[in-house]
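Board notes, transcribed. Complex of a protein with iron/sulfur cluster.
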Amino acid sequence: MTYFFETYGCQMNSAESAALALVLRERGWSAAENGESADLVLLNTCSVRQTAEQRVMGRLAQYQALKKKRRGLGQAFTLIVAGCMAERLGDSLREKFNAVDYVMGTAARSVFPVILEILEKGQTSGLMSTALLTGEKPRFSFSASHLEEGPAGQTPFSSFVPIMHGCNNYCSYCIVPYVRGREISRNPAAIMEEIRLLGERGIRAITLLGQNVNSYRFDDGAGGVTDFPALLELAVRETEKSPIRWIRFLSSHPKDLSPQAIRVMADHPVFCRHLHLCVQHGSNVVLAAMNRRYTREQYLELVDALRQAMPGITLSTDILVGFPGETEEDLERTLDLMERVKFHYAYMYHYSPREGTAAYDLPGRIGEEVKRERLARVIALQKKHTQELLKQRIGSRETILIEGISRKNADELIGRTERDEMVAVPGTSTAAGSFVQVSLSSLRGNTFRGVMCSNHRTKEELFYALATD
Ligand code: SF4
């Protein structure tokens, strides 16, 4: 039997889709080329913006038509909607699209094997009520592994490792706490076991994942508590025994990033010298209305502390413009903060009202045209900063993790720096999965072109060099 996934939204959705696909592969299913030929189609959805939901609605309409067509050819297939939109809209999705067989909310993934059993027995859908799948939610449980299958079945060299689920912050514009629930921190032993298994599979880089990783806190109920800095220390020790050489973590919330976490990061070169630290806005008035619980001054102090502890560390961020009540002066404060920090890159978007969030009923909504115009200014400034920062690095030597052959040029390899920048270098696929030193020679768009350094050192030599440089 075959499956086909469409995954929308954040890295957490990518990790969860990878975990579901792993369950299927372990049961002998294989990936189909597309939805037209699959026995099972799953849409793992996002609700963070209206546009994300509209895109899925469009896809569901297409699958509704496909189901009718394939039924006419005597080919049944099962359609599952999972993720945040499934959690938010529940059974109303089946009422709107009767092609949908199961609506699987964010906490209901543990029911997935039950669905597969029904399908593998050749029974048709509808035998399990949506209420069972979403209403009476089984308690959220983490999957043991989130290793994504690479293109053509190749094993990738990096993987996400979710460490927590949900969020307690209730930023006033955000739907996440309503669709993913309150924070659940994963057992550190399970996290270390996943890291150990990933190392055995040849993974070189991992990303610890959570909506707000800094508030990670696992209480074993016997007086033992593991907070985020302690978890980072455990990850250092676990990776010392494996080929994993790079650890990233995201997303970080400025109000919870502690001096202890910064110190652990600074003490161990296994932590990439890049951090995604979501600022969202540069005006204290708007930050307060967003319920972010820090000020621009506190954010800038944190940036200074990071740069003192790790000179040369780069930062990326999220920026939201057009929040209700935002003035021209507020936007100027955001542009000014961007000038002060010089982010390496940023995810930028304009406010999208989400029903059920605290900001939804706020007065002072800003018109689409003004929102787009303000977003365009923020994007233009960030583009300028990104280009400036990337150009400064031409001529420097960098360690990159080779991911494989470039899709655009078979004589080139594609790799990434610890700042997640793309680098294209001439070479053969034998280097895939290895860390090499390259000299950055030019920039095309946001991708560097580089050459391997003649005396590039082995992995151990490299990281010994990094630790002592
Ligand atoms: S920290 Fe705020 S923006 Fe991020 S997921 Fe939680 S509520 Fe949403």
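The pocket of iron/sulfur cluster is lined by residues 167, 169-171, 174, 176-177, 211-212, 253 (CB under 6 Å). Residues 462-469 have pLDDT under 50 and may be disordered.
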